[in-house]
Design a protein that fits this description.
Blueprint lengths: L4 E3 L5 E3 L3 E2 L8 H12 L3 E3 L7 H13 L9 E6 L6 H15 L4 E6 L4 E2 L16 E2 L3 H13 L3 E7 L3 H10 L6 E5 L7 H9 L3 E5 L17 H10 L3 H11 L3 E2 L6 H8 L8 H8 L28
Helix pairs in contact: 1-2, 1-9, 2-3, 3-4, 7-8
Bound molecules: NADPH dihydro-nicotinamide-adenine-dinucleotide phosphate and 1,5-anhydro-D-fructose (NHF).
NADPH dihydro-nicotinamide-adenine-dinucleotide phosphate binds next to helix 9.
């Protein structure tokens, strides 16, 4: 079965389930995974310049187009402009580099990866003598204007945000000639993001949940995957915990982009359209929220930046 689609405020449709591509770095692995995913039915790929594998994702997509399995218009490709490219000329150059990495002449969605800017240039983590990342005070509205030009030039179908809080999103809306279609944010039952999702929806902005499976890491020693309540719902439906976490997002109208390099998990994560969570399941999952303590992606490099997004309530 194909993934249902969600409609953006510009009329473009995006498959509600996509594949994340962060940390697929071993040479050849991203190409293999994307090809396998296309064969399974995935038609939405979440990428970023920062992930350093756009070339392999593009190679896989072009190969499947060449084999006649898909047409370019069948796949939805997202990428993001990283923090060192926020100055208008650099944002435009970064977009051109992303397109040449993919070997494609347009992408479907281009996001401002984070609201804060690092020192302008091609170094993605520019360090000062003190060993800290050097910031830039380029305003994210300037970056937005570069993305709008990318739409006008036909290089991007739609543009959006990532990791923007409510006030930052409002500032974009106030200054935008082309409205954002999407805000991509960390989201899983331990950080349910209900307030930001409600706000975005009220502005006609869809939300994408990144880190929907939420692996354990140093900032998140616990994961919803092992939560007894999630496991109970999983056994009730004869599904795995990962499938419950994905289904919960798409059933609340949130796009989900789980990443995996494992063939069986690629299959499992896509096999979420043949069951429905009931109201009690949905509210149990929402009740697991831990507020700020549930956030795993903190970005310690940027906590002192004026545009750091996570000091606000949402
Ligand atoms: N905009 C932003 O700032 C950010 C965007 N993202 C995007 O979101 C995507 C998803 O987030 P990500 O951080 O990768 O985390 P995910 O929540 O997708 O989790 C990925 C991890 O979970 C494992 N996994 C996948 N499926 C299952 C399953 N069914 N059961 C158990 N374990 C599973 C994977 O293992 P394995 O691969 O070994 O199978 C991997 O270790 C990223 O890949 C990226 O595209 C992510 C972070 C920040
Ligand atoms: O997209 C991303 C993947 O995760 C990273 C953190 O581990 C983030 O910095 C980045 O925004």
């Amino acid at each position: 079965m194909a993934s249902p689609k969600i409609k953006f405020n510009n009329g473009l449709e995006c498959p509600i389930l996509g594949l994340g591509t962060y940390l697929i770095k071993t040479r050849g692995e991203a190409e293999r995974v994307v090809k396998e995913a296309i064969d399974i039915g995935y038609r939405h790929f979440d990428c970023a310049y920062f992930y350093e594998n756009e070339d392999e994702v593009g190679r896989a997509i072009r190969a499947k187009i060449g084999e006649g399995v898909i047409k370019r218009e069948d796949v939805f490709i997202t990428s993001k402009v990283w923090n060192n490219f926020h100055r208008k000329d650099l944002a435009k150059a970064a977009l051109d580099k992303t397109l040449s990495n993919f070997g494609l002449d347009y992408i479907d969605l281009y996001l401002v990866h984070w609201p804060f800017a690092y020192k302008d240039g091609w170094d993605m983590r520019p360090l000062g003598d003190d060993g800290k990342v050097v910031y830039s005070d380029v305003d994210f509205v300037e970056t937005w204007k570069a993305l709008e030009d990318g739409v006008r030039a036909g290089k991007i179908k739609s543009i959006g945000l990532s990791n923007f809080n409510k006030e930052q999103t409002l500032k974009i809306l106030k200054n935008a000639e082309i409205k954002p279609v999407n805000n991509q944010i960390e989201c899983h039952p331990y950080l349910n993001q209900s307030k930001l999702i409600e706000f975005c929806k009220s502005q006609g902005i869809t939300v994408t949940a990144y880190r929907p499976i939420s692996p354990i890491d140093e900032f998140a020693p616990e994961t919803p995957l092992n939560d007894p309540a999630v496991k109970k719902i999983a056994s009730k439906h004869g599904k795995g915990a990962g499938q419950i976490l994905i289904r919960w997002q798409i059933q609340r109208g949130v796009i989900a982009i789980p990443k995996t390099v494992t063939k069986q998990r690629l299959l499992d994560n896509f096999n979420v359209f043949d069951f429905t969570l009931d109201d009690e399941d949905m509210s149990t999952l929402s009740s697991l929220d831990k507020g700020r303590a549930g956030r795993a992606i903190i970005m310690p490099d940027a906590v002192e930046h004026k545009d750091y997004p996570f000091n606000a309530e949402f």
